[in-house]
Amino acid sequence: RYNDKVVDSILQRFASREAVVIYFADHGEEMFDYRDQFGRTYTQLTPGICRYQFEIPFLIWMSDAYRQRHPDVVEQAARSLERRFSSDDLPHLLLDLAGIRCRWYDPSRSVINDRFDNARPRPLLLGYEIAGDYDSLMRE
Questions:
Q1: Neighbouring C-beta atoms of residue 4, cutoff 10 Å
Q2: For the whole model, what pTM was predicted?
Q3: Which of the two ends of the chain, N or C, has the fewest CB atoms closer than 10 A to its terminal CB?
């Protein structure tokens, strides 16, 4: 609940400004969701373990002033609700929201961009080793 209070205070701070706030947790954590386990484990990855340890809350909040001034971005974000986002792509989303175009920006990696690559693999890492593809594992 404390986290909710902190997020709410941030949103309240920016409510009267033209602002966008992006929130996501830095990692998931399993807390007795479907087995007697608390924390994170790095054992064989199963859909259950991945769901609770890798899926994280993600939110793009836009103030009323921002929404009025940038209806095109609001529409872009609305079209992206069912897309498969990876936090690895956050820099591209931030550049897109800021309207910054540079050699490092890739519109296919910005979840709100119409050129977003929704089929891009999302690798699972255990330590520094790739342990599979998230979406393939979740289809098993």
A1: 8
A2: 0.81
A3: N
Q: Which residues contact 32 (CB under 8 A, 6 or more apart)?
A: 38
Calpha distance 121→17 (Å, rounded): 37
**Contact in structure between 109 and 92 (CB atoms under 8 Å):** yes
**DSSP classification of residue 109:** G
For the stretch 48-69, pLDDT in tens is 777 777 788 899 999 999 999 9
Q: 135's torsion region: left (phi>0), alpha (psi -120 to 50) or beta?
A: alpha
